[in-house]
Give the backbone structure.
Amino acid sequence: MNELMQMAGAISDANSLVSQLKNFFLVGVLGLMYVVSIAFVWGQTKSVLKAGVAAIGGAVVLAIVVNMTVLRDKIGEDIKNPSGGTAAPVAVRIVDHIDPLDGGRR
């Protein structure tokens, strides 16, 4: 029984370590890359506009990476149920033949 408790504790510690590493990479490394990319663009171009575009683009990428699980789940729901469950049933009318407007044959 003691070995089982030790194994459960080791698994819990490993899960905690993985969670801390994920947070470190999301906040630390990606944040540092974001700041460095803006500084690099500013250093190369000395343009406020280009640095602003780099900041906005980096913020979009950072937001996508941080919210990846939410986006994955939302896309999965849309694939499983494309209508969202709230749309009314659709009726399709199949037309076999449409006469030309001038009355002639085609």
The chain has three helices and no strands. The mean pLDDT is 82.
